[in-house]
Structure formats: C-alpha cells, structure tokens
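User: Structure please.
Assistant: Input sequence and predicted structure:
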Amino acid sequence: MKFIAALQAVVTATSFDGEPSDAELDAIEQEMPLILAEVDLLDAEIMTLDRPATMLDERRIRRARNKVMAARRDLTNRVGTGEVA
C-alpha cells in the first residue's frame, strides 16, 4: 500500500504565506492608475444598466474610456522605455 502523504511533501515543498511579495506590490502600484481608470469606467457602465443612457451618461462613459486608454498608453510607455520605478 502506498501512502500519498509521503508524496505530498515534494509537491508542496515551499510554504505559501498568502502575502504578495515586494515585487508584486510594486507591480500593482505601477498599474494603479490603470486599475482606478477601469473602475471608473465600470462605475459609469453600471449606472446605465437599468435605464437608457442619457447624453450625460454617454459623455461620462466616453470620458472614462478615454481615461482608460490614456492610462494604458502611459503604462505601456513606461514599461517600454524602462522607466519602471
């Protein structure tokens, strides 16, 4: 009879503490402007789910989309030029 518990140690040799590493936190901080812009876009889209979009809603969504695109552009330019710090 083989015991599976003896084989488990090889699979789970490194313990996972559940906390993000410093590198992961830095990556999240770099992407935070994009994350916030996407949240703004999502908020604008959620407001129009249960009713027809008004001119103001359309303007709000358009501005939020532009903000997301600008944040993506800025993030891509930073990563592309090596300005990740």
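The helical segments are 4-11, 22-46, 55-81.
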